[in-house]
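User: Could you walk me through two proteins back to back? I'd like the raw sequence and the structure tokens for each, with a short line separating them so I can tell where one ends and the next begins.

Assistant: Of course. Protein one, sequence then structure:
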Amino acid sequence: MLDPVPAARPATGLAVRCTRALLSPWSRFSLLVAVLLGAAATMLLLEPQRLLATGWPARFSGGAVAVILFGVGYGVCTVAFVPRPLLNLAAGALFGTQAGLAAALAGTVLGAGISFGLGRVLGQDALRTLLRGRWLKAADGQLSRHGFRSMLALRLFPGVPFAAANYCAAVSRMGYPPFLVATGLGSIPNTAAYVVAGSEASSPTSPAFLAAMGFIVLTGIGAAVVAWRKRHRLAAE
């Protein structure tokens, strides 16, 4: 009798290799880069900053619905690297202090959560292999061991870009709930200052506008001082 024909193993082996390649850390990281570049390009074409000049579309001016839609759009825009100060000013100019602050904070947490999820799923495995520098190792250790208070400090002092903080936290071993809670609480002061400035932009001599701008300047100086001291401490170590 003839021996049975062996199964075609090369095809199975090729399929397994292709699957592993597609699911490899660097393939997922490449997908993350492609998604972020696509989102950034889309925002450049849509020009969301025009909201400050043209206002909210009339068909979406229905109170709470408009606030919710703006919050969702805010979150998506932060993922696409639209500067948060611009979005906060728009929130205040469009909805006033209270509703604008609610929309901006909700969008901040939403955008941070999306970025953290993308970074954790698509980028963590690949980027952790690059943590060889002293500063990178120090940041990873700080966020991994003291995630909540470290992220709270980063949000309170706006010296680190929003997106950079999101992806640094995602690459570290920081948990999801502490990240979101620290982001929400730490973003309140600076976000409120920009929202108030946006809502009072038509009255640049009003006490509220001057107080908001003073707070923004002081926190910026404080962030620069903290970053300078941290840099020299790391250099000394």
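----
Protein two, same layout:
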Amino acid sequence: MKPVPHATSLRRAPVQRRSAERLTRILDACADLLDEVGYDDLSTRAVAQRAGVPIGSVYRFFGNKRQMADALAQRNLERFTARVTERLKEAAGGGWRAAMDAVLDEYLAMKRTAPGFSLVDFGNQIPVGSRHAEPNHRVADRLTDLLSGYIDREPDEDLRRTFLIAVETADTLVHLAFRVAPEGDERIIEEAREMLRAYLARVLD
């Protein structure tokens, strides 16, 4: 079964398998419609119709479309974490450079393929284009917890600050790359990769 958001992002957490599957369909429909019509024209009724569920099922989990977008962002973060974890298993012993490549590559893959990701990624960007600090703090905290053991470093505040700076840098440059080209300008992405390597080498080597 596909991951569902943590219970704290929902009005009511799914208990039965059927309920969890219904929630997954709702979020999948939300993501597809975000790509098709944008956030302003998104409606809970349209999501219910696309998901093939009664409108009451949507309101069972979400009070409004903003809460749906927040839950979608949380699901994106869970999926990203799972993807990076699998990559790290394949790159065991590769050090922080392999870990950084895994993190950036999986972020780029989701940017290119995950429905609705361009609008909400790991944290609601509504109104469209706003870049609040909270999502990147959330990602940096998750990466600190995930990577500290892999790179044999204490997950202290210094490491969290290091990853926050790296996440903010990557976030800004990747968004620039996708403004320049629909699939992400490869030259900008490679410049971003080199900048991250140079910064992290100074801190982690």
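Confidence is low (pLDDT under 50) at residues 1-8, 127-133.

Let me know if you want the two compared in more detail.
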